[in-house]
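Here is the promised in-class demo. Please do not try to memorize the tokens; focus on the logic of going from shape to residues.
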């Protein structure tokens, strides 16, 4: 019922005037145009790459979440809309890849004309048919009505936070490029394994012990406490006198 106490499916006018007939004709024509609706993803169609890298944008099969209704208020669910292309945040060769997942809820925008030739050629094309405002020309826009995420990139009032859910990983691949971290301070609270060479151009302070399974080489002297590795001497080592400094 609406605020006037009338059925939501009843016309406000029921006379037989010419204007009413025109309005009913317009309404009937509009009813044939596919509406833009919230939808639920029932399947995701992506051909994944074997190396785990992002694949080309795929499609989704979606179920419209607002059912059809007749004049008596009886509801009928929409059928599944298959092969709907979806948006990915990408410009040129750079992208933020968060592909849709089954049971996601999003929204479909309906193109005014048949877009199948554009989808096939990825170029300016004539419409593939004369249809207009049809569900087959829908585009899926993620996401809405979402629950709290378990992994995320989060912009807070204190900066950015990147969080991976338990047993997942954050992987940074730069291959032949350089990764630069610029910060006043960086704190690492986990074990670190470095599989390449490590070059330190400033002082290195270690508060724990150092264990090494290979050689330790130094171009300069090594000081232990106040004792020099290169210049220390041993007492009573040379017929009761101190030895000379280390020579090799």
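The designed amino acids, position by position:
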């Amino acid at each position: 019922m609406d605020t006037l106490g009338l059925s939501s499916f009843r016309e406000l006018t029921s006379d037989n005037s010419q204007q009413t007939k025109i309005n009913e004709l317009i309404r009937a024509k509009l009813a044939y145009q596919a509406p833009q609706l919230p939808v639920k993803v029932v399947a995701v169609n992506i051909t994944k790459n074997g190396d785990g890298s992002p694949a080309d944008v795929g499609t989704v099969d979606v179920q419209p979440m607002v059912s059809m209704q007749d004049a008596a208020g009886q509801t009928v669910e929409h059928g599944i809309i298959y092969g709907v292309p979806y948006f990915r945040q990408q410009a040129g060769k750079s992208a933020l890849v968060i592909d849709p997942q089954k049971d996601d809820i999003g929204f479909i925008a309906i193109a005014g004309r048949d877009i199948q030739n554009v989808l096939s050629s990825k170029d300016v094309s004539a419409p593939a048919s004369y249809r207009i405002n049809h569900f087959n020309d829908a585009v899926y826009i993620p996401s809405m009505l979402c629950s709290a995420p378990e992994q995320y990139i989060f912009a807070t009032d204190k900066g950015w936070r990147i969080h991976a859910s338990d047993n997942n990983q954050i992987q940074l691949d730069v291959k032949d490029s350089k990764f630069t971290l610029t910060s006043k301070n960086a704190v690492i609270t986990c074990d670190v394994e470095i599989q390449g060479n490590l070059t330190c151009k400033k002082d290195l302070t270690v508060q724990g012990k150092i264990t090494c399974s290979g050689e330790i080489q130094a171009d300069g002297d090594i000081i232990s406490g106040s004792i020099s590795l290169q210049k220390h001497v041993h007492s009573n080592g040379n017929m009761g006198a101190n030895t000379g400094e280390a020579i090799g």
